[in-house]
Amino acid sequence: MRKSENFVDGLFSNNPLFVFVLGACPTLAVSSTTFGGIAIGLCTMFVLLFSSFTVSLIKNLIPYKIEITTSLIIIATYTAVVQSLLYTFYPLLYERIGIYCPLIVANVVILRRVTLFSIDNSIFASTIDALGNGMGFILALFLLSSIRELLGCGRWFDIQLIDEDYISSLFVLAPGSLITLGLLVALFKSVKKA
Amino acid sequence: MIKKPRFSILNAGFLFVVITLISVLILGVIHHFTKDIIEQLPTYEKYASFRDVYPSFHYVDSFPKVFHEGKESIDVYKTYDEKHECIGAIVCSTSHNGYVGEIDVLIGFNNQGDILNYRVISHKETIGLGARIVNWFKSKEHNRNIIGIRANETNLSLVNEGGEIDAITGATVSSRAFLFAVRNAFLILDKHTDVLSHSKTLDTLELPVEKTDELKVSTLKGE
User: Fold this and answer.
1) What pLDDT, on a 0 to 100 scale, did the predictor assign at position B217?
2) Does residue B20 sit at the A interface (CB-CB below 8 Å)?
3) Hey, how many other C-beta atoms are within 10 angstroms of the C-beta on B78?
């Protein structure tokens, strides 16, 4: 597979959220606001990018039996880094994401790419793959959180666009998040089929 | 095909130790560069909140006077003008009756008991419903607004409970809890009028305006 195909693959054809529904827990929890959705997406991409790079860099030193454990230590390190930086420089954003920032360590999107792809591929290919998957995850979160914030709060990026009389709180609650995600997955699959 | 090293307890243990040491080193470096900013954050956040709810003070108490109203604990920070005359107070009031948990509100009062502004500093209310307390009571629409009103001349309860303030649609519990915190804040000031007396004691004063701004700037620059 060509490098550019790796990128497009993660972004569209094998989008981690819309195709595999991976990382759904933080996605549904934080996507009630666009800022929250984008923030958790960026944090996840940061961890994915650096973890893929590092694992790919030392892949020849890791015995087969401890690949997952080693990958987890590396992912945990980068998660702690991103958590610390976010808390220091963007405390309000950190507050908005809350517990889902440290929980990036358990995000399957990252573990899947690191243990399935980066562990067997070159640094460049892994980085491109991580970028594609990371941006695919951000794109999915952006769409989901935009729809939820707009229909549930009447806002988009905290800017009031729809009068409060015409919104439905359903979309910011748990059932609304599942319904929106379901509809987006269906839409994505039908577009892909067409 | 990548040739992987053979697994043994020894080389696995060695690899884990090396990776963990590198991780600790990275985290240590990050901590070293961020610890000063992290130490300043609470102070910066505190003064940014104070400035938001009481825009015109020159000095403010460093430490609050703590009062108790029933189960609730209420912190009162007196505010002063440039001549060190007390011009009002910033009150941090908590309500434990929110829909999910506690609601902490910071409210600025002047000496006449007018509410200058409020800021919800922490809550766990439902986004889209109870979380709208953050801005709902600042809106001029209908009977929502509490900014600028004189707390001793207004019944700070919900309309359907005999008061004068509209509840958030679908979030009566959160609205009630919020107004409870505001009411309690004013009750404390009303009960302890000496709190708002024209005190000139300087021993409780802290950063003047300019220093607060410097602090804000240096925190943002990460110096």
Assistant:
1) 35
2) yes
3) 22
The torsion angle over the Cα atoms of residues A98, B20, A58 and A9, rounded to 10 degrees, is -10
Does residue B10 belong to the interface with chain A, where contact is any CB pair within 8 Å?
Answer: no
Cβ-based burial of B194 (10 A; exposed 0-12, middle 13-18, buried ≥19) = exposed
Whole-prediction pTM value? 0.70
Contact B188, B150 (CB under 8 A): no
Residue whose C-alpha is closest to residue B138's, from B104, B171, B95, B178: B178
Cβ <8 Å between A73 and B23: yes
pLDDT band at B202 (very low <50, low <70, confident <90, very high): very low
Contact status, residue A53 vs residue A129, Cβ threshold 8 Å: no
Q: pLDDT by residue (tens digit) across A77-88?
A: 999 999 999 988
Name the phi and psi angles at A49, rounded to 5: -60, -50
pLDDT at position A1, please? 59
What is the value of ipTM here, to two decimals?
0.81
CB contact under 8 A, B127 and A153: yes
Residue range B47-79, pLDDT digits in tens: 778 888 888 888 888 778 888 777 778 888 888
What lies within 8 Å, CB to CB, of B83 at 6+ separation is none
Interval A120-173: pLDDT, tens: 889 999 999 999 999 999 999 999 999 999 998 888 887 888 887 788 878 888
CB contact under 8 A, B37 and A89: yes
Asked if the Cβ–Cβ distance from A63 to B31 is below 8 Å, we say no
Q: Would you give the DSSP letter of residue A106?
A: G
SS3 B89: strand
**Residue of B8, B45, B128 with shortest CB distance to A172:** B128
- B14 close to A (CB below 8 A): no
How many angstroms separate the Cα of A174 from the Cα of each of A30, A31, A150, A185, B12? Answer: 11, 10, 16, 17, 43
